[in-house]
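Example 3.2
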Amino acid sequence: MRHRPSVAVVWALAAGLAVSALVASNMGFLVWRTLEGPGPNSPTGTNTLALPYQRIPGLNNASDLMTDIGLANVGNVQRFLEATTGLQVYTGRKASGPDYPLAAGECYFVRMNATANYLIGGSSAPGLALSLDPPGPGNPSGTNFIVLPYHRTAATASQLMADIGFANVVNVQRFLAPTTGLQVYTGRKASGPDFALSPTECYFVRMSAFVAYVPSHY
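Structure, written as tokens:
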């Protein structure tokens, strides 16, 4: 991991709070995330990573993220492309696809070569609206891959659907690293079980109508 003097700024935002797995106020936080390399917990070494809406200075694009985690530990960073439901891959190596900027509220897959503990620091922007798109020319499936603020009040998939507006949401899906599959919750009859949301992970939300979603927060 590269030297990060700006972490002191994050500590200032979270001032006065005790250190724990998640140090948070309504503004800033620090949290450790274990990014799993290939092994029993993640055969492919693929993880989702929820970055804060307001990141530490200098963490602006996929290459910065790889450097911050530790380039030798990271195989690639991938972002979801709504228009194709495919992935844009950046490896930081020769013949890689182009680097791309990190965007608030957008989730990324990080494929690891080795397990690493990554310190995530930043702050939420409580008023930021996430554009959740239904099926249309720019998003044929109506699937959105989103990061929720660390200070959200929705703690489960069902609560997230209710917060967005149940009638507008087809399902919420989470990535399962051990199988590289997806767990789907629809909230309807015969749905799979509800599941808890994790602060450092992110979720696919499939929509039936457009919502400019401002997550409820504390």
